[in-house]
Fold this protein.
Amino acid sequence: MLWVIILVVVGIAFAPAMCLRPSARERHLGKLRDAAVHSHVSVKLETSPLHGDNDKMAAYRWPYPAQRPGPVFMLVREEHASQALKLCEPGWRWRIEPLRPMPPSVNTSFLRLLSKLPADACVVESNAKALTLWWDESLDVEDFCSLAAPAAALRDALQGRPDQPSGGVPEAPI
């Protein structure tokens, strides 16, 4: 009987520790985010840019150099976009279209990235600071690494192409 009591006490002592172990999904995300950091991509959980969605979503950012800001645009997967938005490519619509058209070489890099995105990628966004992919982190590490190269190539092609070359807001006419 003493052994049963000892086993119950030990079980009660170790039960909380077993609950603290990361799940398979958490281990997967840890490996994926480590691979992202190794590829010089910052990862943050932030409020989704999708309209009416206040849930947190992973934002993977490929930063532009401070001296070479990028353009401003937002591309949304068609399942999450209004039909009133302008079509970019099949399956994607512009929420914010770039002010200046992309040269053919940049457009090729852009299309290459879009073709490699997983189904759970919802938004591709760019601002002066970074190119951002909003998604639910479904890829494994190897597939992410094959996605990171076209994203970095697009970031490199877009850097130094800000919507406002002076970096400021245009003045209103008097």
Observations:
- The radius of gyration is 22 Å.
- The longest strand covers residues 56-63.
- Residues 2-19 form the longest helix (18 residues).
- Strands lie at 42-47, 56-63, 73-77, 86-89, 92-96, 123-126, 130-135.
